[in-house]
Specification:
Chain B: One of its GO terms (biological process) is protein N-linked glycosylation via asparagine. Chain B: It comes from Raphanus sativus (Radish). The complex is a heterodimer. Chain A is built from 32 helices and 13 strands. Chain A is mainly α. Chain B is elongated and about 90 Å long. The chains are: A mainly alpha, B alpha/beta.
């Protein structure tokens, strides 16, 4: 950061924060590198420092995410990653062509699922490429290891992009700070620890890369950067549905630039190239298809594209027509007709059904109450809940305090790049407030803006310290808007107090940053490194107890059931059953068919004989439920049960939520509603539980997850029989009996 | 039902009738109800005297009452929204049957507040929202099941109430009239304002002189969006969470902070958001603006002030966070300093 020595100019203007006194550090460094043979020039020293810091950050970003591997083992986490892993395995075994045309009959029985047309293949292809590359280099690793480590690897790459992005919008110092901040920011780590093999793992890298290249393109007006950004966009589209954020943010940015009178040829080149090429490339992804020209979510981008052409055209006409009056009339006519034509086209498109209206997920971002009222399947997912302030605190820590400061500095030195980062930061922060999971998207922006705050603060303070020794010096500064603002920072003869105050503040800043590092490490190790497929708890003596029931159950299914058996469970476990148990499921985490899920929800919330008919109609052989009453595991099926009722009731009105509640309260003890006590889910979870003493001093049948004694201890099953219960009762599997012979 | 129409019961009832409502004839009661209704805005009568209009009138009464059980103290938004919807049904019923007093005087819309605990007890109300139709022949309020609106139908819309009324009373409510979001004059004024100002705005815009070209506007907007987001306001809007709660044990005490990581109250969110924003802006102010102040004393005072304020604010946020989540978040200072 410190040792760059710019040629000083002698224009006499009092200057300047970035290069005010670069002479002291080189001396220091020179004495440090005092080997005669190794003597480096100041610029080289600076480069060396920068590269080594970046290298360290790169390594840090990787190793900070390995807690889960060290603590448990190298395994895939959670739910969705199991599907990704399964498809990647398929891809490496059968090749890309087969993968692209894969019809999966093992999920969504009896409907099946066309895998190639309903997924974002970016992640799988990336992992497969890494795998093939490693094999080509004669590193014979298992594909699972590649999948487990893909997320940390891409997180490391993201830090590099963050560095360049920070350098682009502010300076190298901000770049380095941004890289360091994002390397360990909990908001990002939460989705990129080793084993969380999910789309977001590569998508955040792609997102930041696209933005960086686009900003670079706007800054330089060069076609090659715009081309790069189009390819970055293509990678993003191939990796994650969150690309919709890019295709709306970029046009919004362009629109703001147009409104604030910052239209330029550079912007024109960057946006047009990026939009047209990006759109054409994105159409190659089957899951996205022609949405770019058909769906309402993408229409904003197209509108801005047309607006750009109008602007350019007007510019051209203005240049050709020298008469201002003539131009004014012309302007009026063009603007009115453009708006008219656009409005009519949009109206006709929507009315004729050619342009589809916004999807529920997108709509729920703009009108956040929408999902809660209309789409229970979205509202039921815990990561789609709106964010409370404590989550922000948990994921951002001091970045939250630095963010407004960073905004302030950005506004002090407005340029095309800072406008972009401010817009990115604010929109994503708003979305983060709507849905917890979108904190992830906001994290890079928050890190970058906070890095600006840290960098600018440190720079201001150190220059304050240095001006004591040197009379104000001048230096050339890089960047578009920097000369204007930096000249404002006039540091005349500094008083002794200033120096002390600056030292105190500097110490404070570094102290805060060190605390941030500690917090991040702690959060990563405590909260974000649990695979959730293997559960850990603290025993009575503080020792760690591992519950490996999920895998036990899935391997049981794999070993002990016929290969064509169909397993019914709530959709959360679908991916895991197909990936680890290798059995066909009725519904899974790809929640594309609400009716099918509702059918399962209805079966779970009906009486056994009614459920039996439904299960027979779906050819179900086994039913799997997750139950935490013995271990006190709270995210089990009983706690998810109301969502099954709601989703089931959304399609089949026979299922009514009040039937399962008592005075609006959900209970499983003696006071529970009769329907609740006799529905299939209750019976399957609590079968034989009434005989079991779970806790000392409590009656038999004491449910530790809900802290009550259950209400129905004498459960008889008529059409199902218990097939397997794991060692801690977390997973229970039942076999559906064939119908009795009719005599 | 049969049990309560036994002779002693009847006898008791007639005694009660004689003693209390000796003066009021049913027709008088109807006129009284009509006058009460006309004095209320949406035609919903605040029923303070249940015995006068229901229990002490001999059946069959000349009118039906549909009662909305309300609770102002509960301070629940959905309940009050439902109450407003109920008001729309009442107003629509009167408006749609305007010239037919024989219809409008058959049914009166009433409400009973939970402060009238005696009436709540009489009807045996356990949960809210609840709507009850007291038809002309109903005698015992405790056995009112047939008059109760079914729980599944109580979905908070005016339509459901209207349907309920029509199915039970054979009276027609007709289409529900909701007041438009903006009245016609308002729309007219707004439209004309836009029409008048449009040329000026466009002219200004083309010249590049609007507030949109002023970076300060964007700056304030940015800070506002930040404040709005980090305080979790969206959380409160989506879950329609009130600003504060009343302490269930002591109704005079207000609860502003809620000890549960996933839930927050409105006032809590705003105060934490303010703390965040304040500290952030102070930091920017100190490092960017304060260094340019020439007077040393001014600087000194400002600096100390800023430090103290930031320290307190951060301490407060950390304290709240630890208290709320139960997580011991990493301190900004070693824990031994606490």
């Amino acid at each position: 950061m410190g040792g760059k020595q710019d040629p000083t100019t002698a224009n006499g203007s009092p200057k300047s924060e970035p290069t005010a006194t670069k002479n002291t550090t080189p001396d220091l460094l020179n004495s440090f590198f005092s080997f005669k043979s190794l003597k480096l020039k100041t610029k080289q020293q600076e480069l060396l420092l920068r590269v080594s810091i970046l290298g360290l950050v790169y390594v840090l970003a990787f190793i900070a995410r390995l807690f889960s591997v060290l603590r448990y083992e190298s395994m895939i986490h959670e739910f969705d990653p199991y599907f990704n892993y399964r498809t990647t395995l398929f891809l490496t075994e059968k090749g890309f062509h087969e993968f692209w045309n894969w019809f999966d009959s093992e999920s969504w029985y009896p409907l099946g699922r066309i895998i190639g047309g309903t997924l974002y293949p970016g992640l799988m292809v990336t992992a497969a490429l890494i795998y093939w590359a490693l094999r080509f280099l004669r590193f014979f690793v298992h594909i699972r290891e590649v999948c487990v480590l893909t997320a940390p690897f891409f997180a490391s790459n993201t830090t590099v992009v963050a560095y360049f992005f920070g350098k682009e919008i502010w300076d190298t110092g901000a770049g380095l700070v941004a890289a360091a901040l994002i390397a360990i920011c909990p908001g990002y780590i939460s989705r990129s620890v080793a084993g969380s093999y999910d789309n977001e793992a590569v998508a955040i890298f792609a997102l930041l890369l696209t933005f960086y290249l686009f900003v670079k393109a706007v800054k330089t007006g060069s076609l090659s950067w715009a081309l790069g950004s189009a390819f970055g966009y293509f990678y993003m589209v191939s990796a994650w549905g969150g690309y919709v954020f890019i295709i709306n943010l970029v046009p919004l940015y362009v629109l703001v630039m147009l409104i604030t009178g910052r239209y330029s040829m550079r912007l024109y080149v960057a946006y047009n190239c990026m939009y047209i090429l990006g759109m054409l490339l994105a159409m190659q992804i089957r899951f996205v298809g022609f949405q770019h020209v058909q769906s309402g979510e993408h229409m904003g981008a197209m509108g801005v594209f047309l607006l750009m052409q109008v602007f350019y055209f007007l510019d051209w006409v203005k240049y050709k027509l020298n008469d201002t009056k003539l131009f004014q009339t012309f302007l009026k006519i063009t603007v009115t007709s453009a708006i008219l034509v656009g409005g009519i086209a949009l109206g006709v498109g929507t009315a004729s059904g050619y342009i589809s209206p916004w999807t529920g997920r997108f709509y729920s971002l703009l009108d956040p109450t929408y999902a809660k009222d209309h789409i229970p399947i979205i509202a039921s997912v815990s990561e789609h809940q709106p964010t409370a302030w404590s989550s922000f605190m948990f994921d951002y820590h001091i970045l939250l305090f630095l963010f407004p400061a960073g905004l302030y500095f950005c506004f002090k030195r407005l340029s095309d790049a800072t406008i972009f980062i401010v817009m990115y930061g604010l929109t994503s922060l708003y979305f983060a407030g709507v849905m917890v999971r979108l904190i992830l998207v906001a994290t890079p922006a928050v890190c970058l803006i906070s890095a600006i705050a840290v960098s600018a603060t440190v720079k201001n303070l150190t220059s304050l310290l240095r001006t004591k020794q040197k009379v104000p010096q001048t230096g050339s500064t890089k960047g578009v808007g920097s000369s204007k603002s930096s000249s404002k920072v006039t540091l005349d003869q500094s008083q002794p107090f200033q120096k002390n105050g600056a030292i105190a503040l500097l110490v404070g800043v570094f102290y805060l940053l060190s605390r941030y590092a500690i917090h991040c490490t702690w959060v990563t190790s405590e909260a974000y490194s649990s695979p959730s497929i293997v559960l850990a708890a603290r025993g009575a003596h503080g020792n760690r107890i591992i519950f490996d029931d999920y895998r036990e159950a899935y391997y049981w299914l794999r070993q002990n059931t016929p290969t064509d058996a169909k397993v019914m469970s709530w959709w959360d476990y679908g991916y895991q059953i197909t990936a680890m148990g290798n059995r066909t499921v009725i519904v899974d985490n790809n929640t594309w068919n609400n009716t099918h899920i509702a059918t399962v929800g209805r079966a779970m919330s009906s009486y056994e004989d009614e459920a039996y008919d439904i299960m027979r109609s779906l050819d179900v052989n086994y039913v799997l439920v997750v139950f935490g009453g013995v271990t006190g595991y709270s995210s089990d099926d009983i706690n998810k049960f109301l969502w099954m009722v709601r989703i089931g009731g959304g399609v089949y009105p026979v299922i009514k939520e009040p039937d399962y509640l008592v005075n609006g309260e959900f209970r499983v003890d003696k006071g529970a509603s009769p329907k609740m006590l006799n529905c299939l889910m209750y019976k399957l979870c609590y079968y034989r539980f009434g005989e079991l003493v779970t806790e000392y001093g409590k009656p038999a049948g004491y449910d530790r997850a809900r802290g009550v004694e259950i209400g129905n201890k004498d459960i008889k099953l008529e059409h199902l029989e218990e097939a397997y219960t794991t060692s801690n009762w977390i997973v229970r599997i039942y076999r559906v009996k064939p119908p009795t012979n009719r005599v | 039902m049969a049990v309560h129409t036994t002779l002693p019961y009847r006898f008791f009832l007639s005694i009660a009738l004689l003693s209390i409502t000796a003066v009021s004839e049913p027709t008088d009661l109807t006129t009284e109800l009509v006058s009460l209704r006309s004095s209320s805005e949406s035609g919903v009568i605040r029923l303070n005297d249940v015995s006068k209009f229901i229990t002490s009138v001999a059946t069959p009464r000349p009118y039906s009452l549909i009662i909305f059980f309300n609770s102002i103290d509960l301070n629940s938004n959905p309940l009050q929204n439902f109450r407003r919807e109920f008001g729309f049904v009442s107003a629509s019923f009167i408006a749609n049957n305007n010239n037919r007093s024989d219809v409008t005087n058959k049914l009166f819309f009433c409400e009973i507040d939970s402060s009238d605990s005696e009436s709540f007890h009489r009807f045996g109300i356990q949960s809210l929202p609840q709507i009850c139709l007291v038809d002309p022949s109903m005698e015992n309020l405790r056995h009112h099941e047939r008059g109760m609106m079914e729980e599944a139908d109580v979905d908070g819309t005016a339509e459901s109430v209207a349907e309920f009324v029509e199915s039970r009373t054979k009276l027609t409510v007709g289409p529900i009239h909701r007041p438009p979001l903006l009245s016609k004059t308002q729309i007219g004024v707004i439209a004309s304002l836009i029409a008048i100002s449009a040329p000026f705005l466009i002219k200004k815009f083309l010249k590049g002189e609007t507030f949109l070209h002023d970076s300060r506007f964007w700056q304030y907007g940015a800070v506002l969006v930040y404040f709005f987001s980090v305080s979790g306001t969206m959380h409160n809007i989506i879950n329609s969470i009130p600003m504060y709660l009343r302490d269930p044990e002591d109704s005079n005490r207000l609860v502003f902070f809620y000890e549960e990581p996933e839930i927050q109250l409105g006032a809590e969110a705003l105060s934490v958001g303010l703390l965040y924003t304040g500290v952030g802006l102070l930091l920017a102010y100190v490092t960017d603006a304060l260094v340019r102040v020439r007077n040393v004393n001014e600087q000194r005072v400002a600096m100390v002030l800023v430090m103290v304020v930031s320290f307190l604010a951060v301490k407060r946020v950390v304290y709240l966070n630890n208290w709320k989540t139960g997580y011991q978040i990493q301190m900004y200072w070693p824990s031994s300093w606490q």
